[in-house]
Amino acid sequence: MFLVDLNCDLGESFGRFKLGEQEEILKYVTSANVACGFHSGDPTVMRETVKLALDKGVEIGAHPGLPDLVGFGRREIAITPQEGYDMVVYQIGALQGFLATFHEKMQHVKPHGALYNMAAKDSQLAEAIAQAIYDVSPELILFGLANSELTKAGERIGLKTAHEFFADRTYQANGSLTSRTQKDALITDYNQSASQVIRAVKEGKVLSQQHTDVTLRADTVCIHGDGENALLFAKHLNETLEKNGISISAIGKWGSK
């Protein structure tokens, strides 16, 4: 039996700025990465997103990013490993506060955007982020790019680590994501994207832009909540995976199966 977690970045509205159809998307995913106010989100949005996810039975994780609202956390900022550690601890704590009001626990932590991509390549930053998560709670699951420095750091420190695959992104021969600055970075065809996910889950491979196969794990698959037609794609992917013999479940529940 094939098993995969479907995660989605949510809670990325703030103030009068509204982004995504998260109440509907939550019907089709198993884990929610909730923005913690640095790259997006605000206290009210965080609380509302936590409640919506809990109502739908979706597991919740922190989605800490760089302090860059204007750039949506997708612009690299030079930070030290210590600053990365502090940012992650701070943002996990913010979300934990809201979860505590509902008497619920956090499942995972997934860095956002540029912080995620920086940690995928920078071993010192990756170690600082993994240490931050471990120090807050060694029971938290770290979501990171498959085969990256971040997942390696998580495994070394003893965290349960989920290797993440991106449904709507193309890959390079070295296993990295194609930069969003390139026109071929995103996959907009639903069937192409779903086929890529199915192969990653069943075969552990993805075809790179250089037309070579990259070997990787796909424990959890990301759907971007801010993407165009994100709701329709989430529904399509959920249904297509089930039709192809792939069960969908939150990764924190796998041990009980």
TrEMBL record:
<dbReference type="Pfam" id="PF03746">
    <property type="entry name" value="LamB_YcsF"/>
</dbReference>
<dbReference type="GO" id="GO:0005524">
    <property type="term" value="F:ATP binding"/>
</dbReference>
<protein>
    <recommendedName>
        <fullName>5-oxoprolinase subunit A</fullName>
        <ecNumber>3.5.2.9</ecNumber>
    </recommendedName>
</protein>
<comment type="similarity">
    <text>Belongs to the LamB/PxpA family.</text>
</comment>
<keyword id="KW-0378">Hydrolase</keyword>
<dbReference type="GO" id="GO:0005975">
    <property type="term" value="P:carbohydrate metabolic process"/>
</dbReference>
<comment type="function">
    <text>Catalyzes the cleavage of 5-oxoproline to form L-glutamate coupled to the hydrolysis of ATP to ADP and inorganic phosphate.</text>
</comment>
<keyword id="KW-0547">Nucleotide-binding</keyword>
<comment type="subunit">
    <text>Forms a complex composed of PxpA, PxpB and PxpC.</text>
</comment>
<dbReference type="InterPro" id="IPR005501">
    <property type="entry name" value="LamB/YcsF/PxpA-like"/>
</dbReference>
<dbReference type="InterPro" id="IPR011330">
    <property type="entry name" value="Glyco_hydro/deAcase_b/a-brl"/>
</dbReference>
<keyword id="KW-0067">ATP-binding</keyword>
<dbReference type="GO" id="GO:0017168">
    <property type="term" value="F:5-oxoprolinase (ATP-hydrolyzing) activity"/>
</dbReference>
